[in-house]
Design brief:
Strand content of chain C: 5-15%
Oligomer: heterotrimer
Distance between the termini of chain C: 71 Å
Number of strands of chain C: 9
CATH topology of the largest domain in chain C: Rossmann fold
Shape of chain B: globular
Order of helices and strands of chain C: HHHHHHEEHHEHHEHEHEHEHEHEH
Chains: A alpha/beta (about 675), B alpha/beta (about 325), C alpha/beta (about 375)
Helix content of chain C: 40-55%
CATH superfamily of the largest domain in chain B: NADH:ubiquinone oxidoreductase-like, 20kDa subunit
Distance between the termini of chain B: 52 Å
CATH topology of the largest domain in chain B: Rossmann fold
Helix content of chain B: 25-40%
Strand order of the largest sheet of chain C: 1-3-2-4-5
Chain lengths: ~675, ~325, ~375
């Protein structure tokens, strides 16, 4: 390598840096550093004229190292790498010195900030001397996209990708796509029928030539890297050959065994051979091995007897299928908070205390009550309390706001008012109606006569408990011991606007329970190497500027797996994730990071200390050579293995010991 | 023509290195045949002034064992450097500072206080501590100056080669000596002789798996499985961060490697490297649990820097 | 016409006095709605907090002294507000001005002159133990210090529970001793009055006594003392292993070292003391003891364990007047009667007094007894 000729470019970043750091002094200092042949400053180095200035200086001063002192490498490292490349310099001979986030923004005293800026630049210059040019690596991209999860987010993302001409593999854990949205009755605030707007999309997925739908399947293993993922999918045994099945339904009719119906939230039953709901896609049944009596006793086979096309196959087995894709969209959705953990609310203890989703089913024309809002004993309720923020906005459970409850609570209130004469109480902390048409919907509901009580409901008692604990209250509220009154539930809250403790004697209580991350979110995060935030949901790469990307290139997020979301936001995000995936896979080739680690076989002793520490699973072990190997396409250059390797056989390109020591010495001005 | 001259010197060390030279057994006769002894204080009666009288470079080979703890060590190191063509730092103390290098954790006065006042076996009611200069009626008595801290040989003078080990493996010593006797070309200056280029694990026959450590154990209180990598079993074995060459002697005997052969070629700081490796494979995400696991490591400096403290990035505690 | 504007300097005084958590409150009303006072009168901690957040007049009124520190609200608060700490800090500001309720003033006077809140003579401390032949504690010869709480020495009803506990412990061969007049009140309720000076005096006097005598392990009769030894003493270099007597006895029964002998043919329910349950997380040991008693029929009330209903004696309420119709003890006795119990058992001297009071106020002495766990055990032993 030639003798270093270093150029230092100091950015003012408007007043972001120049307002604190004495640029002139720093520039003078930089030009005194060894091997620095050119030092200059500019108002905005990242602007077009700024970039031109750098490129011109590289050519004119024959620079072979470039140091830009400006903001974080996250912001503009790629900008200046490109400038270097265009000027004919290998992009890895560029070094960024962060004098904004790490200096001017966080240092109060201008003099100290100037001293610190000098030290940071001195470190960068010292490191740059030892920078080595690295080869630019390109890999080809597989144009297929994997979508995990067949709820509305997965459906939307799959359709967008398929329409753009990409092959899509859509993996769904349950026997049908549709997700939570298929369970809803109406959608807020427009009150469209959920099934009516969802089923056409589900059908399109089922029929689309570019979509390979794999229901009753789970992703088991993901390896590879951006553009070239290898995915192992477990196709659970359905015991029904869907290529033969006509979906006539006779098997379900004849099956004598029943289990709680998951789709109906356990409020109804289904058969052991079943489709989750009538509009299921695919509309062909599976056998639930746990319930089916044949698997227990070896007898029955009723379904098989009646199946004309002979589609039932009791010898079916789980199968593992391997597919190759270029991008992955995660749309695994959410779980609901288990309201039993707030025992004071009487869920599963008293009749007529329901969760929001249970109420959706009760209210749904296709649901267990055929859409009639009724109590367990068949009566129509005369009063209903809807309790907000159950498990949301609560440090004891989930600190975040679930974002959808205020609105669906209003929707329930409306539907109740529409179908019954019932009084409706909403116990809320704050009404959050922020979306398009939401505030108007809230207004409409106040006019419909819904009673709003600003206070969090803390307990629900049945008649007996209330009578024992608060006999005076029961009497004062005029509750008699008539059969009807004895089925009342008593909700207690403070109306914080009145400073009065309130008791609401009602027939039904609906708990707006929190949306929470999937119970298996951790497994998925491990499979895909994506992070989980404090709230348990998947973490996007940047909350504002990269909301559908993840820390793993080529893996994108859609819908409620990233955080609580309503349907409009979910669909918008799913389209965004699809666009991001399409824009990636249609590029054909992608440049991957060259600042990766490699194992020097001469020095590796095969101790295996590095084998399990790579967060990107890029390290494997070559038994024949007794040496560890880094797959540089998977490697992100984090350096964990290089610092782990006890014999320094692993070197992290662009962050070698020599470069790092030089930087430290430079920082300390040694 | 007279035979080339050989010097063997014992500075601050235990004496084991001198014994290891004798451990080449009858081959010592070959050495005697090939060389004239110029200095070997433990074996023959030479005077420093004999060496001082020699021409510069008159000695072909000096095997210098022991670290530099006092002014006498330093004086002889520099003297032998001048008089020798090839100066070899022989054994861990000369090479890296050695076991006695852990004294760099203590201040000079603390060391003297321990040795001359506090140790249980000392009877010194007048608290007499050796002085560099004592005036008695017969005249002045002098002693070498005891330095504030200990250094390796190459921290006081230029060294040509290193033979590692505490003590060096006799077979390796023999091989090096025979190489020189045969007049074969020597490797580049600064090379480590009589050792390999990889870590101990390269020669270790124990079965190695992916490492996940949940508990540290000590050989004093637990019995390791004889087939499996000791580190995997929670015994801190310095093998992964130690240069090969000894034939994995300790590990084969069922004891974790202590690291006397020093760091492998590219490693700057043996202890830091091993710490960093172990820290990476502790199998827990829970800070409290991690602290609990780490707290099981008895004597961290003695474990990770047993032989290399004076030549590590740490070097010594503040004086 | 009044004009209002926030007065944030007042707010800051509260925050500085240890009420930092005041800032976290988002006014949902959970505290008000779960507060036991809500069953008998209007009382909104939330409202007091809002006034305090604005620094407006009114937070310092009489209602400030209602809180019995039962911790129901703290456990349910969605923002994790240390509501008791905020109340205590507001009380401490008032205490500095001397405007504390008059009955508390005499309690503090007694603490200052006698080292106990019951206006009893210091010399008479541990008079309850006179005939039991208990040894004096010494770190060299004794394993446990038994800390009886002040109440048994000066209140005839609670005297019985200390006697019962001491006898059972002795019978089981537990090696324990007591202090005499040198010992003072643990200080728990005194802290809740807001008088930090007096409180710290108590703390330091006990800690220096304990440390000088070599105390390592303490068996506490009262959950209030237990709480203080556990949560307050360590920060003032008072580090002891502390256990509640029910823990010791449950362990002895489990290990077969103590065996209830005689039958106790009664239907017993158990009232969880706030400071034993919510504050210290001890729910099972008292129940285990009761269930080990032969012949005893055990019945749970509706509000148990984490949801137990306060007796009304905590937070220095012990020494404040409560109108008969507002007494929690009365409600608790009613609840016990509703499950058909003829004994309500508990494990706290304050609860004993408040429940006895409720029983008398209701005039149901013939229908239900109030007994400490130790008294039931003692009845089956001797």
């Amino acid at each position: 390598m030639d003798k270093p000729r270093i150029g230092v470019f100091i950015c003012h970043c408007g007043t972001n840096i120049a307002g604190k750091v004495n640029i002139e002094e720093v520039k003078k200092y930089a030009s005194t550093l060894g091997d620095v042949v050119f030092a200059t400053d500019y108002k905005f180095m990242c602007s077009d004229p700024g970039q031109e200035l750098v490129g011109k200086a590289i050519r004119e001063h024959k620079l072979n190292r470039v140091v830009v002192a400006a903001c974080s490498p996250l912001m503009h490292e790629s900008t200046f790498r490109k400038v270097c490349m265009l000027a004919g310099l290998n992009q890895y001979l560029f070094q960024m010195a962060n004098i904004r986030e790490q200096c001017s923004w966080v240092t109060e005293d201008p003099e100290l900030a100037t001293v610190k800026a000098k030290a940071i630049i001195s470190g960068a210059v010292a490191k740059s001397r030892y920078l080595e040019p690295l080869n630019i690596k390109e890999v080809t991209i597989n144009p297929s996209v994997l979508v995990i999860g067949g709820g509305i987010a997965g459906i939307q993302a799959a359709l967008e990708c398929a329409e753009a001409g990409n092959k899509v593999i859509l993996v769904e854990k349950t026997p049908s796509i549709g997700g939570h949205m298929a369970q809803f009755d109406k959608t807020f605030p427009t009150l469209d029928c959920s099934a009516c707007i969802l089923t056409p999309k589900m059908t399109s997925v089922g029929q689309h030539n570019n979509i390979e739908l794999m229901t009753y399947s789970e992703v088991k293993e993901v390896s590879g890297y951006v553009g070239n993922f290898k995915v192992k999918i477990l196709q659970k045994a359905k015991y029904v050959d869907h290529s033969k099945c006509t979906g006539c339904g006779i098997c379900m009719e004849k099956c004598p065994y029943k289990a709680p119906n998951e789709f109906e939230e356990g409020l109804a039953q289904r058969k052991a051979i079943y489709t989750p709901f009538p509009q299921a896609v695919p509309n062909k049944p599976v056998i639930d091995k746990e319930t089916c009596v044949y698997f227990k006793t070896g007898k029955c086979r009723a379904c098989e007897k009646f199946c004309e096309p002979k589609a039932v196959n009791f010898n079916d087995t789980d199968r593992e299928i391997e597919v190759n894709v270029g991008a992955i969209i995660v749309a695994t959705g959410y779980d609901l908070f288990d309201t039993r953990s707030v025992s004071q609310l009487g869920y599963k203890k008293y009749d007529n205390v329901y969760t929001g989703l249970e109420f959706e089913r009760i209210n749904n024309a296709a649901g267990p009550t055929a859409g009639k809002i009724q109590l367990k004993d068949g009566r129509t309720p005369k009063s209903i309390a809807i309790l907000h923020c159950i498990g949301s906005r609560d440090k004891n459970y989930h600190e975040y706001c679930s974002r959808v409850c205020c609105m669906y609570a209003l929707k329930y209130a409306h539907l109740i008012k529409e179908k019954t004469e019932s009084d409706v109480y909403n116990c809320y902390i704050d009404m959050r109606c922020f979306g398009k048409g939401y505030e108007e919907f809230y207004h409409r509901l106040t006019e419909e006569g819904v009673d709003f009580i600003r206070g969090k409901a803390v307990c629900v008692l049945d008649y007996n408990d209330a009578k024992t604990l608060y006999p005076d209250m029961v009497e004062a509220l005029g509750i008699t011991d008539s059969e009807e009154d004895r089925k009342k539930l008593f909700v207690r809250t403070e109306d914080t606007l009145l400073k009065k403790t309130m008791w609401l004697p009602v027939d039904m209580v609906i708990l707006c329970n929190a949306m929470k991350s999937r119970s298996d979110a951790k497994d998925i995060s491990r499979l895909l190497n994506i992070s989980i935030g404090k709230d348990g949901f998947f973490l996007e790469k940047h909350p504002k500027l990269a909301p559908v990307s993840t820390a793993t290139d080529g893996v994108f997020l859609a819908g409620a797996c990233q955080g609580p979301k309503d349907i409009p936001d979910t669909v918008a995000q799913a389209s965004a994730a699809a666009a991001a995936a399409i824009s990636l896979v249609q590029r054909n080739k992608v440049v991957i990071e060259s600042a990766t680690a490699y194992v020097n076989e001469e020095l590796c002793s095969g101790c295996k200390l590095c084998n399990d520490i790579c967060p990107f699973t890029a390290i494997s072990f070559d038994e024949s050579k007794n040496r560890s190997v880094v797959n540089d396409a998977l490697c992100k250059g984090c350096g964990t293995c290089a610092s782990t390797c006890p014999s320094s056989a692993i070197k992290a390109n662009h962050f070698t010991d020599r470069q790092i020591f030089a930087e430290i010495e430079g920082l300390l001005n040694l | 023509m007279s035979k080339p001259k050989l010097a063997i010197y014992w500075a601050a060390s235990c004496g084991g290195c001198d014994v290891s030279i004798l451990d080449i057994h009858e081959h010592i006769l070959d050495v005697d045949k090939a060389f004239d002894l110029a200095l070997w204080p433990v074996a023959a009666d030479f005077k420093y002034k004999d060496v001082e009288a020699m021409q510069d470079g008159e000695i072909l080979l000096t095997l210098f064992n022991g670290a530099i703890r006092n002014s006498e060590n330093e004086h002889i190191a520099k003297l032998l450097r001048k008089k020798s063509k090839v100066l070899v730092a022989f054994g861990s103390c000369a090479h890296l500072g050695g076991v006695i290098g852990m004294a760099n954790l203590s201040k000079r006065d603390e060391i003297l206080d321990t040795v001359y006042n506090k140790s249980v076996s000392t009877h010194n009611p007048e608290r007499i501590i050796p002085q560099t200069l004592s005036r008695v009626k017969e005249g002045e008595l002098t002693l070498p100056k005891f330095y504030n801290y200990l250094r390796s040989l190459d921290q006081v003078t230029d060294v040509d080669y290193y033979i590692p080990g505490c003590p060096p493996n006799p077979e390796q010593v023999l091989a090096v000596v025979q190489h020189i006797i045969a007049g074969k070309p020597l490797p580049p200056k600064g090379s480590v002789l009589g050792a390999g280029d990889k870590s101990q694990c390269d020669e270790c026959k124990r079965k190695k798996n992916v490492k996940k450590i949940r508990e540290f154990r000590r050989i004093a209180t637990a019995i390791p499985d004889p087939e499996i990598c000791l580190l995997e079993q929670g015994f801190i074995c310095m093998g992964p961060a130690t240069r090969s060459g000894c034939g994995v002697a300790c590990v084969n005997a069922g004891v974790p490697c202590r690291g006397c052969y020093g760091p492998p070629p590219n490693v700057l700081d043996q202890g830091a490297k091993m710490l960093s490796a172990i820290a990476s494979v502790i199998d827990s995400d829970n800070p409290d649990e991690i602290n609990q696991i780490i707290s099981q490591v008895e004597d961290p400096v003695g474990t990770f820097y047993r032989f290399s403290l004076p030549t590590s990035l740490l070097r010594r505690s503040n004086i | 016409m009044n004009y209002y504007t926030p007065f944030l300097e007042v707010t800051k005084t509260i925050l500085d006095a240890g009420g930092e958590d005041l800032k976290k409150c988002y006014q949902c009303g959970t505290c008000t709605a779960v507060c036991p006072w809500g069953s008998v009168r209007e009382f909104s901690p939330r409202y007091i907090f809002k006034l305090a957040q604005h620094g407006l007049e009114g937070y310092e009124g009489d209602e400030l002294w209602l809180c019995s520190t039962c911790k129901t609200c703290v456990d349910r608060c969605p923002r994790g507000v240390g509501i008791i700490d905020v109340f205590t800090s507001m009380r401490s500001i008032i205490a500095q001005t001397g405007l504390i309720p008059p009955t508390l003033r005499s309690v503090l006077g007694s603490i200052n002159s006698n080292g106990n809140p019951w206006a009893g003579k210091r010399e008479e401390r541990n008079i309850w133990a006179k005939e039991l032949g208990l040894k004096n504690f010494s770190g060299e010869t004794t394993e446990y210090l038994y800390f009886s709480c002040c109440a048994p020495s000066y209140d005839p009803r609670t005297k019985k529970i200390a006697v019962a506990t001491a006898r059972v412990l002795k019978e089981a061969g537990v090696d324990f001793g007591i202090f005499g007049k040198e010992e003072s009140c643990c200080g728990e309720s005194i802290k809740k009055t807001g008088d930090n000076t007096t409180y710290e005096k108590l703390l330091n006097s006990n800690i220096s006594l304990f440390n000088s005598k070599g105390v390592k392990k303490i068996i506490a009769q009262s959950p209030h003392c237990l709480y203080t030894f556990r949560n307050e003493y360590p920060a003032h270099s008072g580090n002891y292993e502390q256990v509640h007597y029910t823990q010791v006895l449950a362990e002895l029964i489990k290990g077969g070292k103590l065996k209830p002998k005689k039958e106790f043919r009664k239907k017993v329910t158990y009232h969880d003391p706030c400071y034993l349950g919510r504050h210290s997380g001890i729910y099972e040991e008292p129940r285990d003891i009761l269930k080990s008693v032969p012949g005893l029929e055990f019945a749970e009330m509706i509000r148990i364990k984490e949801q137990s209903f306060c007796c009304g004696g905590g937070g220095a309420r012990m020494w404040m007047e409560t109108p008969k119709e507002e007494r929690f003890g009365v409600m608790r006795i009613k609840e016990a009667l509703s499950v058909g119990a003829n004994v309500i058992a508990t494990a706290c001297p304050y609860c004993i007094q408040m429940l006895e009071d409720g029983r008398t106020a209701l005039g149901v002495e013939d229908r239900i007894e109030v007994m400490d766990i130790s008294e039931i055990l003692s009845a089956t032993m001797f």
